[in-house]
Write a structure and sequence with these properties.
Distance between the termini: 47 Å
Shape: elongated
Number of helices: 4
Largest sheet: 5 strands, antiparallel
Strand content: 15-25%
Mean pLDDT: 74
Order of helices and strands: HEEEEEEEEHHH
Radius of gyration: 24 Å
Strand order of the largest sheet: 2-3-8-5-6
């Protein structure tokens, strides 16, 4: 059982975090046998945070990391994990505000039943097999970056092929109220968009 380990003696000083521009912090409150909570002091909506361990985990265990941005209701979002083989991890938490990463988030965790006024960091000590399931579920909730690129490129090709199939010469154009667009213009847009997508798959979010 997780309880029978020197980790319990180490209490909350086993974990720490660094927010960009701030000193390291190991101030966690233990809210249950395996859950640890810290209120974050931040003034910006863009939050980069490094989470780390200062003492080894018990064999076969790790820490699932959650983030809760102030909301009327708690919306804990799973960020990732730390373990003996991965003793630190860095996250950009600004995209998680109000569940903006596309996940519904989880409600009551870490003894928190209300959203509160401060961002919160929670660490749940779990078996690595349980963490693997959490990570898999998180990954399956949204397309990976490479899948996004592949999807957009396929969509672009489909649009280009569809539009091109209706191409006519100037002599074949009939008088009508419709507007005509040169295929070369569509091709130019297609190549430009594809290049931008290849160079920066997230450019459309900016």
């Amino acid at each position: 059982h997780y309880k029978t380990n020197t980790f319990i003696e180490q209490e909350c000083a086993m974990f720490g975090y660094i927010i960009a521009g701030q000193l390291p912090n190991t101030n966690f409150e233990r809210v249950s046998e395996t859950e640890f909570l810290s209120n974050l002091t931040v003034t910006s909506t863009a939050l980069h945070i490094v989470v780390f361990v200062t003492e080894p985990f018990p064999e076969g265990y790790g820490g699932a990391i959650y983030f809760n941005w102030p909301n009327p209701e708690p919306t804990w979002q799973y960020l990732g994990y730390i373990s003996n083989n991965k003793p630190s991890a860095i996250f950009k938490a600004s995209q998680l505000k109000s569940g903006a990463n596309g996940q519904a988030g989880q409600g009551v965790m870490f003894g928190v039943s209300a959203g509160g006024s401060q961002p919160q960091l929670g660490i749940s000590a779990l078996k690595l097999t349980e963490i693997e399931q959490l990570t898999a579920a998180n990954d399956s909730s949204a397309l990976t970056l490479s899948s996004n690129v592949q999807f957009v490129q396929t969509m672009l090709e489909n649009l280009y092929n569809f539009v091109s199939s209706f191409a006519v010469t100037q002599q074949q154009m009939s008088a009508s109220s419709e507007h005509w667009v040169k295929v070369s213009v569509v091709n130019q847009w297609y190549e430009r968009f594809k290049t931008r997508m290849t160079n920066d798959p997230n450019f459309w979010k900016k």
